[in-house]
Predict the structure of GMP synthase [glutamine-hydrolyzing].
Amino acid sequence: TVLVVDFGAQYAQLIARRVRECHVHSEIVPSTMPVEEMLAKNPKAIILSGGPSSVYAEGAPHVGAELFQTGVPTFGICYGFQAMTRALGGTVDRTDLSEFGRTELTATNDSVLFSGLPSDLLVWMSHGDSVVAAPEGFTTVASTAGAPVAAFEDTDRRLFGVQFHPEVMHTEHGQDVLRTFLYEGAGCRPTWTMVNIVEEQLERIREQIGDKRVICALSGGVDSAVAGALVQRAVGDQLTCVFVDHGLLRKGEAEQVEKDYVAITGATLKVVDAEDRFLEALSGVTDPEEKRKIIGREFIRVFEQAAREVVVESGEHGAEVEFLVQGTLYPDVVESGGGTGTANIKSHHNVGGLPEDLQFTLVEPLRELFKDEVRKVGEELGLPPEMVWRQPFPGPGLGIRIIGEVTRDRLEILREADAIAREELSRAGLDRDIWQCPVVLLADVRSVGVQGDGRTYGHPVVLRPVSSEDAMTADWSRVPYDVLAKISNRITNEVREINRVTLDVTSKPPGTIEWE
Ligand code: XMP
């Protein structure tokens, strides 16, 4: 593995992903981790990430010289580069020549890091302080107007560093520099491939589960689908997938899980039709948080009941379901390790996010993977593109896209409108450009319209197409007018109760993606 030491910048995850794109496994560790602990992971290389602070700032994360005496090849980026310089006796100064954004860099091609690359490169910079003298033993291999030492290397000790950000897209040949460090500088081999990932996970799952019973809650989303398919391949019939149909799904969703998923994975599926139960519990409720809590609570109850039934149906005397599959991803693992106390904006109900007092041991085969890797694993396992490339859909489903009380009729209206929007966006080839497009029914609002010769008094829907990297921030998508026109026309013509289609042009923040 390659350790990416996180100095608190948002870049660490990006670096970790870029390393994996070179087919080398990477793992993010906090900068506070003691060096012995890092060495215990037997790293092939260490990468020090950028950080928000100046090395002179109060509370700036410290790097001791011992990290560079381990013999493990090390690459410092931005803050990591400066921290490395300080620790090894070089000089970092406030030069008043801060550089932000695209910067011209002149590199020496007979270096290791820049071998085979043009000597003039545009790179992405973001620094106030600059390295003005490299530590002893290092050769300066690149410079810019504001950074006399913009990259250095010591090939004997296999230590390297760059002031710019090789991981960002805006840096020309950034990925080449990173790859050169990994392959030439550190001697890593490209063994992190989908086939290996799948093989390794199957092995681990079998080891963990043995001959015990296991269940998986399918949500229809990518993560639980891939996690379930992996476990199915590993232990076959010992797995039962449980799919709770809460009646808040989109058109065709339950059918896709019931038919396609089973056909492709061979999974044993238990579908629980819980529509009545959920709608009854939601009856009369309009408050968004209350809706979310009710849906979360009901889900757990239904799921627990299903788990008990799985045992009974298995017919094995004294059998017990010991394991529960969850589609936890690597970013969740990294983020919960960071333990930052972010404010509770919405109580997210994740179908995977069952409470801890459920008496199961978790099986989390995706906890080392990023979302794009999960999709590749899904493809490797033969899941269809519609499933693998499915856009995010919230656990509480259409329940939080009906503003006002959730009723059967309203769900039916929204389901039709949503299906039309999805169909037209797909037809226009926009599925992978937009992150998702909630369709929201303003069920308590009515407006006057005219259709044929008659007056109508119907409901509006809101289209909420957004583009995003991670759903933490988002912008409204500039969907072409003619696509919007088509959607609007079809919805108002085909869904009788809707006489107005509006577009949400709010970014996040201040708006969230979902309306509730
Ligand atoms: P917001 O509305 O908070 O949504 O901007 C961010 C992303 O999360 C999805 N979302 C949920 N996903 N359970 C989920 O599994 C939930 O309760 C939930 N609420 C919102 C939303 O669709 C968007 O992708």
